[in-house]
What does this fold into?
Amino acid sequence: MIALGNDHAGLDLKNHVKAHLDERGIAYKDFGTYTPDSCDYAVYAEKAARAVADGECELGLLFCGTGVGISMAANKVKGIRAACCSDKFSAEMTRLHNDANMLCLGGRVVTPEQAVELVDIFLDTPFSGEERHARRIAQITAIENIVPEVKEIMNNVKIMTHPLIQHKISMLRDKKTGTNEFRKLVEEIAMLEGYEALSDLPTEDVEIDTPIETCITPVIAGRKLAIVPILRAGLGMQQGLLSLCPTAKVGFIGMYRNEETHEPVSYYCKLPRPIEERTIVVMDPMLATGGSAVDAISQIKKEGGKNIKFMCIIAAPEGLEKLHAAHPDVQIYIGHLDRELNDNAYICPGLGDAGDRIFGTK
Ligand code: RB5
It folds into this structure.
C-alpha cells in the first residue's frame, strides 16, 4: 500500500500518478487534499507520513509545488526519510543508499511524464542493505531518537564531551577490554565526571598559615557530600569520586522489583546522616530503562535526601526520559548518550553488563 498526500500545487501531479498506479495495479491510500483550493502542505504531509511511519503503508508519495515544503514536513515525523527528487539518479540512489520511504515531487518542477518515471524507479528499487548504508541510516535514526528528549530536558542534563571521557568510554565499549582495565577506566571516568558534577560543591572558609602569612581561604565543606553508589555496578565508580573528595561520606542503596506487585523494594539502604543537609551523588554506570535509578532516588528522597545528582557513564534516551520525568529536580551527568535500548533492555551500542565486566562475573 502506498500513501499519497499533496497540497493544491501538487494535486494535478498526484492525480496523474494515481492513474499510473491504477494501470500498474498498485494499491494506494490517498490522504488528500482532493480539491484545488489553497491549503497547507504540512497537514497532508503529516497524515501520509504517519501512515508510513506506523506501517499502514509501505512507502509514500507526496506532491506540492516544489516538493520541498512537503518533504520538510514529512521528515518531522519520526521514522520518515522523505526525499525530494527531480532526477532519476537521485530517485534511485535514495532507495539504494538512504532507504527513503517517501518520495516528494514538485508539481511546478517535474512534468507528469517525468513524475511517473521517478515514481517507478522509486517504487521498484530496493534498499541495497549494504552495511555502510545501514550504519548511516541508523545514525539518522539516532539523531531522531536523541534530539527531542535531550532538547526538552537539557537544563537538567550535562553530557560530558571532554575528549578524555569520550576516549575512555570507547575503551570500555571494546569487548576485548579485560576486567582489570575496565575497572580502572570506570573509576577514572567517574573521577572526570565528578570534577564537573561537583563544580557547585559548597565550600567554607578556613584560616591557613602560608609560609608567608595567614590567610582566609576556601576548602570543601567535607561533611556536606554523600556519595551513593547503586548496588552493585555503582560500586565501580565510588573510588573515582572518593579520590576527588576523600572526606565524603558514602551511602549504599540496593533495589529490586517485587515481581508480583512490580513495586520497588529497597533490600539495602544505608545513608550518611544527616542526609537532608548533604549534596548527594547517586551513581550507576548505566542508565538503561531508568528503573533502578528512579527507584533508588525515590528511596533516598523518602529518607530525607533533597539535593540529589545522578551520575552515569552511558545512558539510553529511554532511561534519561524516565529519570527526568520522575525526578525533574535531579541534575543528571552522562558520559555519553547512546542510541537506544534493544529488546533485552541493553543499551546500544553500549558496553555490555557493566556489573559483570567490573566484577568479572561473566
Ligand atoms: C504553495 O504555493 C507552495 O508554496 C507549496 O506547494 C510548496 O511548493 C512548498 O514548498
